[in-house]
Design goal:
The complex is a heterotrimer. By secondary structure, chain A is of the alpha/beta class. Chain A contains 14 helices and 15 strands. Chain A has two domains: 236 residues, Rossmann fold (3-Layer(aba) Sandwich); 123 residues, Rossmann fold (3-Layer(aba) Sandwich), CATH 3.40.50. The chains are: A alpha/beta, B alpha+beta, C alpha/beta.
């Protein structure tokens, strides 16, 4: 899977340091290697498909002495995140990975980690949520956690997973941010697929990512005891912020996080020679009239459709949304401004409304003069194939409906069984 | 720079140790413990050991001194000290009867 | 081991003027326990009365580090603190303690507690047991005793209390103790002893609650002592699997020395509706509990 932005970066001349190694890795193992390179100190996780290989590999690293970290084999995802919240508060860099029901089970702790403003990093290997049971990929798990205060970044290939995990620590531990980051990637489509991944040398990573620091490091200040997360009240007391002010500060930090992410990416590109595009990534959009929008596997599939669409006379390109939270409204507005039609492919449903990415893309475009016609499609739910043909079919339908600027309140699902 | 003591820069709810977190007891206390120094064994027998009231006060509002002193700023008037005094040296008196 | 009140350390790590109720025995238990634990301690506390005692942001009523965690995650939170201290090489210097209520321990928190104990996580878990969800307004918990009124058992609970110390025994942990807030010296000694072990240590503290149990605030100590003297709440330690009855409970191995359970029940509003038949059932339960203990010794 190639991406336009990345391709351009790779074309730029850069010296390849000899200490680097390219391995053929699954997406899950790419994440494990990044966690090792980040010198994570505490890992806490519970098995779930398709995440488990991330932690299995890390267990090998720890038990073989390649990674000096404490590994807690907790009895639930709830406990995984709760233990990491306290490990981070105590003063260590932490990691976990999960999927689907594991993520849902963590929900309360996700809010707690963000509210404490902790630089926790987690991989979400995205998978459908029951009922009924489905172990297959879609984005419903990650998207359902979008309001917890986490930064969420979606990846499209295994190199991007490796790079994004390293960037995630740098973003999370930035004093302007101090928020947890989820690195999201499609179950199986990336988690279990082998791709070449170039690993940075440890010296390069150490230079990029200095030792852990955070605003809470209890073990380092035992003579100045504090209590973290007591009860707050509705109104400020004695000049101190109340719950509402603290939540306002969290939102402000999220609003500024996209800019920090872009800074971090630029710095990472200097070291690695790879740039993934920041909050959003464009593929053949410059001259395009029609934009296909998606995250993770949806945008990969959309890219494959572009040649066919252009051959059929539809000047199309792809906008990959990497940063889902904070939602990059400005970047999306800038890229989609002037386009005629936008087709959004969601591998999730904000049930009772429409695809979450579609709703938020529309909201981002609100108020600009002569906005593009936006049409959403629900695809690939519970591991259903989202094919090139589906991407073409959706784009054609969007273009057709745009002619009369038809408004469809009901959702459009692609690749359903006949007669549905 | 994030500093939990600075209301402007703090980003999380971090509390710092303070005596009287909940404020002074104020007017809601109905009874207050009064130590009768004529009965307190720490006074009547200078070598005696006791401090039972100090040990039992749920909040540490009684000093480990001879005689023990009650910190009325924070005493909630529960009466545990009076109940547990082995020498019956503490009486619970109605607030309005006290000067 | 200390034996007299003035042997207790003078330094107070609990600061006067907390938000707990008048006559709260949890407050007394906590004040005593943290004297034993000392300043080099990180405590983690779930949603509970103890959260309230610690005070409202931005002030705190204790001189130790505290991490507030969610209701069910005391032991998981402690596991994280322990792992971090091990990673930092500070685990020998700093004691990690989880303090949770009975609901947070035996109901919503038992999964995390069981997991942490099975991993023999190096920490002390203390359950202060006021036998109901006192903080949310006295609802029934798994630790509520037979026939006790709570707001969700208005006619009295039909089941007996869950025996958490025995559940902990099944985890093969090195130290288990029961104690009662009414015996501060015993509380102090057991926390001091627990500190000397490595691995998971569990302390179950009975903590009478004046508003929840329905008795006047000055009787907190007496009520707890009656729980021990009737044999309802036996005090013991289990060290590496072997049970030792504490001296406060030793006499009551002999059933003739136990006060009748009615002496305890009749002093509390939460039992005011009980009949002689209930009292007999309660007494049988207590006698059976001692038959079990006598076999354990």
């Amino acid at each position: 899977m190639t991406s336009g932005g990345k391709q351009e970066a790779e074309d730029a001349s850069r010296p390849v340091p000899p200490a680097r190694e390219t391995l053929i890795l699954t997406g899950n193992h790419a994440a494990s290697f990044a966690v090792k390179a980040a010198r994570v100190q505490v890992i806490s996780a519970y098995p779930i498909t398709p995440q488990s290989p991330v932690v299995e590999k890390l267990s090998e690293f720890v038990e073989d002495g390649e990674l000096k970290a404490r590994m807690i084999r907790v009895e639930s995802e709830q406990s995984a995140m709760a233990s990491l919240i306290s490990a981070s508060t105590t003063g260590t860099r932490v990691f976990t990975a999960t999927s689907s029901h594991g993520l849902s089970y963590m929900h309360e702790q996700l809010a707690w980690a963000a509210g404490t403003r902790l630089p926790v990093v987690m991989c979400i290997v995205t998978r459908a949520i029951g009922a009924p049971w489905s172990v297959w990929p879609d984005h419903q798990d990650a998207v359902s956690e979008r309001d917890t205060g986490w930064i969420q970044i979606f990846c499209e290939d295994n190199q991007e997973i490796y790079d994004t995990v390293l960037e995630a620590y740098k973003i999370a531990e930035d004093e302007r941010v101090y928020l947890p980051v989820a690195v999201c990637y499609d179950g199986y489509i990336l988690s279990h697929t082998l791709m070449p991944v170039e690993l940075m040398s440890q010296a390069e990573v150490d230079k990029f990512l200095p030792p852990f620091k955070s605003h809470l490091m209890l073990a380092m200040s035992m003579d100045d005891p504090v209590g973290v997360n007591p009860v707050t009240v509705p109104e400020p007391r004695e000049g101190f912020p109340a719950y509402m002010e603290l939540r306002h500060r969290m939102q402000k930090a999220l609003e500024g996080a996209a800019a920090v992410m872009e800074e971090v990416e630029a710095e990472f590109a200097k070291v690695s020679g790879r740039h993934h595009g920041g909050a959003v990534r464009s593929y053949r959009l410059d001259d395009a009239e029609v934009a296909l929008v998606g995250m993770g596997s949806c945008s990969s599939q959309a890219k494959v459709a572009i040649d066919d669409l252009r051959a059929a006379g539809i000047k199309a390109g792809v906008l990959t949304v990497r940063l889902f939270r904070p939602f990059p409204k400005r970047q999306i507005r800038e890229v989609l401004k002037g386009k005629k039609v936008v087709a959004v492919f969601d591998r999730d449903v904000a049930y009772g409304l429409e695809g979450a990415l579609c709703a938020e893309t529309k909201a981002s475009l609100y108020g600009i003069p002569d906005p593009p016609y936006v049409h959403g499609f629900i695809v690939g739910i519970g591991g259903r194939d989202f094919t090139t043909e589906n991407a073409i079919e959706g784009t054609r339908l969007a273009v057709e409906r745009s002619r009369n600027r038809e408004i469809h309140d009901e959702t459009t699902w692609l690749n359903l069984m006949e007669g549905e | 720079m994030v500093n939990s003591r600075d209301p402007k820069s703090t980003i999380a709810a971090v509390q710092h140790p303070t005596v009287g977190e909940a404020g002074k007891t104020g007017t809601w206390r109905t009874f207050r413990p009064v130590i009768d120094e004529n009965k307190c064994i720490l006074v009547t027998s200078p070598k005696a050991r006791c401090h039972t009231c100090w040990m039992f006060c749920p909040e540490g509002n009684i000093s480990k001194t001879r005689p023990p002193r009650v910190n009325y700023d924070y005493c909630k008037g529960c009466g545990i000290c009076a109940q547990s005094c082995p020498h019956d040296a503490i009486a619970m008196r109605k607030e309005e009867d006290e000067p | 081991m200390i034996t007299r009140p003035d042997d207790l350390p003078e330094e107070e790590l609990l600061l006067s003027g907390t938000r707990s109720c008048a006559g709260c025995s949890m407050s007394l238990m906590y004040r005593t326990a943290i004297k034993a634990l000392g300043k080099n301690t990180i405590i983690t506390v779930p949603a509970s009365c103890l959260t309230v005692l610690h005070g409202l942001y931005h002030k705190q009523s204790v001189l130790v580090n505290v991490i507030h965690t969610t209701f069910e995650t005391t032991a998981a939170s402690a596991s994280g603190i322990v792992a971090a201290l091990e990673a930092l090489g500070l685990d020998e210097k700093i004691t990690v303690v989880g303090f949770a209520g009975d609901g947070g321990t035996s109901d919503i928190g038992i999964q995390g507690l069981s997991g942490a104990a099975e991993r023999n996580t190096n920490f002390i878990y203390a359950c202060y047991d006021n036998e109901m969800y006192s903080n949310t307004g006295t609802q029934r918990s798994g630790q509520t005793p037979y026939m006790a009124y709570t707001t969700t058992t208005p006619h009295g609970k039909l089941e007996h209390k869950k025996n958490i110390p025995m559940i902990m025994l099944a985890h093969n942990i090195p130290y288990i103790a029961t104690t009662c807030a009414s015996y501060p010296l015993d509380v102090f000694n057991k926390f001091t002893r627990a500190k000397q072990f490595k691995g998971t240590r569990y302390i179950h503290v009975l903590a009478p609650c004046p508003p929840g149990w329905g008795y006047p605030t000055h009787e907190s100590i007496e009520i707890g002592k009656l729980a021990v003297r009737t044999g309802i709440f036996p005090l013991y330690e289990i060290i590496d699997g072997k049970m030792f009855l504490s001296k406060e409970s030793e006499p009551y191995l002999d059933p003739r020395k136990r006060l009748p359970v009615a002496d305890y029940l009749k002093k509390q509003g939460r039992f005011k509706h009980i009949t002689q038949q209930h009292i007999d059932t309660y007494q049988e339960y207590v006698n059976g509990q001692w038959d079990f203990i006598s076999k354990m010794l």
